[in-house]
Amino acid sequence: MPIIKTENLTKIYSGNIKAVSDLNIEIEEAEIYGLLGKNGAGKTTTIKMLTTAIEPTSGNAKVAGYDLLKDREKIRNIIGVVPQDLTTDADLKGIENLRMIAAFYDIPKSVAESRINDLLNIVDLTDWGNKYVSQYSGGMRKRLELICGLVNAPKILFLDEPTLGLDVNTRAKMWKYIRDIQKELGVTIILTSHYLEEVDELANRISIIDHGKILVTGTPDELKSSLKGDIITMQFSGSDEAEAARYYPNALYSSISGEDKVRIKVENSDVELPKILSYLTQKGISPLTINVKKPSLDEVFLEYTGSSIDEDIGPEQFRRMMQNVRRLR
Ligand SMILES: Nc1ncnc2c1ncn2[C@@H]1O[C@H](COP(=O)(O)OP(=O)(O)OP(=O)(O)O)[C@@H](O)[C@H]1O
């Protein structure tokens, strides 16, 4: 039985803004489930509804057997939430932040102390528990934020953009800790992200959300192999040559990147590559480099939403990102 099952969950904000529309998802126990979407797609609103921070306009959900509309208090006790914005107090020690949360949940002191030690250990902060958060690096603070969501030993952990504002290396380290947490504690993890590599690395299953609607759900591999075809990328010595290659007649689609690089999607590269080369030879041109690959999650996102995920980030996302970057410095 799924640990979360939503039934036409919908949120309409004032001003008739339909942020989430008839959401139907099922999340299995102990999986890492990724909700992937652009800025404004409805990810945070979904998390806020499922964590009882806001009420749905219509629809309902079962969360660990509890009714989202009726059992809000019970749900709060069995979930952990790590929101996008930082919540720890930099003027307190790491361990003091964690103890405050334990006190909020009325966890007996002895239970709390041993749990806090275990959590600090999982994210390699044992030696830092007694230091002030203001002394932590950006990545360490994010790790502390991560375990703040686990003090009440939740069944389900919600992570809203867990690596927003972190550099690539620190982000990859966070992925390891998120995986370790899932393995060691057996908790179900629901994360939102607009980083394709992040959901590809972490999630057992992904749903792509766009304009408040789920467009597709599957494992990263299922989604990738649902797209037929291969991507052939070729580099030329000039833009005219690239432009000529772009119009190869059997291309399913093609695009130019940079000035001299062409990406051509074909049904089967084994068959098409020799044909492309003879087509180019007839035109008296030859590529400097050729690369063939299977569709990535990038192509999956493009195919389902009609636009690339990294086209732009909105002003609100930018504000949050810069705020986190500043505070994490
Ligand atoms: N409190 C609110 N009042 C009105 N509209 C809102 C409110 N919160 C979000 N929205 C709008 O609802 C839509 C979905 O926003 P939401 O924050 O859920 O998207 P998101 O995918 O999580 O993006 P982000 O990563 O920026 O949080 C957007 O159009 C947003 O502008």
Per-chain topology:
Layout: E1 4-13, E2 17-23, E3 26-27, E4 32-36, H1 43-50, E5 58-63, E6 66-67, H2 72-78, E7 79-82, H3 94-104, H4 109-122, H5 138-148, E8 156-160, H6 168-185, E9 188-193, H7 196-202, E10 205-210, E11 213-218, H8 220-226, E12 230-235, H9 239-246, E13 253-257, E14 261-266, H10 269-282, E15 289-293, H11 297-305, H12 315-328
Parallel strand pairs: 4-9, 4-10, 7-8, 8-9
Antiparallel strand pairs: 1-2, 1-3, 1-5, 5-6, 10-11, 12-14, 12-15, 13-14
The structure holds adenosine-5'-triphosphate.
In spatial order, strands of the major sheet run 7-8-9-4-10-11
The helix content, as a percent range, equals 25-40%
Q: Quote the beta fraction.
A: 15-25%
Mean pLDDT reading: 91
Q: How would you spell out the order of helices and strands? A: EEEEHEEHEHHHEHEHEEHEHEEHEHH
Write the CATH fold name of the largest domain: Rossmann fold
Number of helices: 12
GO biological process, one term: doxorubicin transport
Keywords: ATP-binding, Nucleotide-binding, Transport
Family: Belongs to the ABC transporter superfamily. Drug exporter-1 (DrugE1) (TC 3.A.1.105) family.
Domain ABC transporter: 4-236
